[in-house]
Amino acid sequence: MPNDNAYARSRKRAKAKLGFFNHAIVYAVVIGFLFIINFATSSEHLWAFWPAIGWGIALAIHGATVYLQTDQAEMLDRMTEREMEREKARQQH
Q: What percent of the chain has pLDDT over 90?
């Protein structure tokens, strides 16, 4: 059973990373087209900068949640083990 759990957690992390990668590709393509439209229609006013900034912040947050957040299932497992050890120690005294 632990192997099934490890596989499920690994699969979930891999899907999250793939989702972020897809998000980054869509961001690059759409923002690239916005800058092309911006320069073709009104190069004196750089309006495409604003959606790039806003969406870029969202993309950065998405990346942080995928790559910087600890795996909550693993953290819960470790915390549960510690609590079980503490409970065992209390029962022995």
A: 58
Q: The domain containing residue 16 runs over which residues?
A: 2-92
How many domains does the chain fold into? 1
pTM above 0.85, yes or no: no
Q: Quote the DSSP letter at residue 49.
A: H
* 9 exposure class (CB count in 10 Å sphere: 0-12, 13-18, 19+): middle
Distance of CA 83 to the CA centre of its chain: 29
Q: What is the DSSP letter of 46?
A: -
CA-CA-CA-CA torsion sign (30, 34, 35, 40): positive
